[in-house]
């Protein structure tokens, strides 16, 4: 179900913004995706614009490849991730992952506001795509950037293929008040009468698309959990049955064929 369109904030009229993660693509493949969606400017929102595993996306060589293709490349470090969570605030305690919570705290800062303003000016010149490294948008801070843009009436389009871009839906437990987006602890988890296990459990119903396993949308829900050794736990027999097995009388031992030989019987006499 598509999210309800919010009124456009001042200055964002006509802004067309896409989002993409370079992942393990080649530079050529990513450029073809951008061209297919009519992107004119790529806004790089990586804090550190380089990659050891995918050096084709390092700042200099990738910038040259984009320029050769007729695309503009701008590094917006103020929209980059890797921010530390504030210890004096639980405003975004709904995020259990420290990286996401840290960036959610940073969203309230002047630095983030400056980054959004730079993005707004780029969008005035034509379609823009914000880019980070992670392929899955729910494992990337760009989903929080898209939440902030949604609060301003701009629906980011997440590029999935050359022919498909999915409209952004805000994080389910996000709270939007005017232009401010926060991520408080969901109401169900704030219940003081709930047992500790229920309070600490990740709830996919609360929309916790966070980090590594939880942000993979809990695909293995309902499967047997693995024990500390990594092996699957199996159901053990009831204690009553175990005790009964332990006291089961042993059958009488059969004499071996050798013990029944006549010579052995005479010797016993």
Sum up the structure in keywords.
single chain, Protein-Tyrosine Phosphatase, Chain A, about 270 residues, alpha/beta, 6-stranded mixed β-sheet
Please describe what this structure looks like.
The protein is built from eight helices and eight strands. The protein has helices spanning 27-36, 59-68, 98-106, 110-123, 142-151, 196-200, 239-246, 262-268; strands spanning 17-21, 41-44, 72-75, 128-132, 157-159, 165-167, 175-177, 180-182. The relative contact order is 0.15. Helix content is 27%, strand content 11%. The strands form two sheets. A six-stranded mixed beta sheet has the order 3-2-4-1-5-6, with helices on both faces. The chain has a domain at 17-188: Protein-Tyrosine Phosphatase, Chain A.
- By CATH, the architecture of the domain at 17-188 is named Alpha-Beta Complex
Indicate the proportion of strand residues: 5-15%
Kindly report the spatial arrangement of strands forming the biggest sheet: 3-2-4-1-5-6
Distance between the termini: 94 Å
Radius of gyration: 30 Å
**Broad shape:** extended
Largest sheet: 6 strands, mixed
The CATH topology of the domain at 17-188 corresponds to Protein-Tyrosine Phosphatase, Chain A
User: From N to C, what is the helix and strand string?
Assistant: EHEHEHHEHEEEEHHH
The residue ranges in which pLDDT falls below 50 over 5 or more consecutive positions are 193-209, 211-243
| CATH first level of the domain at 17-188 | Alpha Beta
> What's the pLDDT, averaged over the residues?
80
Classification by helices and strands: alpha/beta
Helix run count: 8
